[in-house]
Specification:
Largest sheet: 6 strands, antiparallel
Shape: elongated
Order of helices and strands: HHHHHHHHHEEEEEE
Radius of gyration: 33 Å
Number of strands: 6
Helix content: 55-70%
Length: about 350
Amino acid sequence: MSGTLLRLACTAAVAAQAVLAPVPAAAEPAPRHTVSQLLTGLQQLYRQAEAATETYNATAEKLERQRAEVTRLEAELARSRVALQGSRADAGRLAREQYRTSSGLGTYVRVLLAPDPQHALDEGHVIGELARERARTVHRLTAAEQRRDALARAARAALDTQLTLAGRQQKQRDEVLTRLADVDRLLAGLTPDQLATIAALERQAVTAAQQRLTTAGALPTARPASPAGDRAVRYAMEQLGKPYAWGAQGPGSYDCSGLTSEAWEHAGTPIPRTSQEQWRRLRKVPLNELRPGDLVVYFPDATHVAMYVGDGRVVQAPRPGEDVKVSPLASYPVLGAVRPDQAPATEAR
């Protein structure tokens, strides 16, 4: 029996503790209805864990953007301060020049006594204009500095908020992982028959769901991918066998939306990082119009995503303890599908 099934069975215990006491190593196999409850609890726990991970991913993405914005604002603020210092230095030099060339007489008298009255007028006009321009420049840059300071303070405050949120989400995710570890220890004595029954129940449920989609005509007929979709599928298929890991985007491991977002990034079409944002922002398409490269989104709150590869199957990073693999489209309850690109399909795959 695979280590994956052991981890899956172990994970379900928290949800099922109300109906199933810890099973000693020598205990008889649990009745079928109890194993079914274990499977239900397992699915609920994984859904909760994946929802927490996607929320964490979304926060991390916001933090990355916020850090970039703060860096940009700080750099702009530094440039404005340097420019302001230079302008003030220029204004100071102008003031000193005016002082040195001033005789203490009024402008009218200086013009009358000057050897070249026109030159004196021109010089006075230029100096006055330079002074006014410098004053305007200083005022403009001072206002800009004040604006930059306000923006920098706002950006830092926003970043602090996001960091606090990320810490909260990290704690929630860690709590899920702690519960899973506790269950691993609690149910280490499950028998091979119990594990086999859990796996068989899950396979039966997926087969039945896939058959319902087929009977309803919801599965697509063969459709060619777009050029970018073909590249995305090729990238995703190259990741087969790599492990699922929380918040991972490759290259050694992936979570569900990490795989789909990286595949489309390599195809030249960046898409949102999380499954929920992929569902919210990408164009929705009917299941029976799917083409390879489209994304299938699962659960009512869009907490899981996979990539359609044709023939009613998807490539996905399923859940902790499993590797990237090809699965039936109906591996989880389907919410709908989205298309990352609008390019026409290729003539042939």
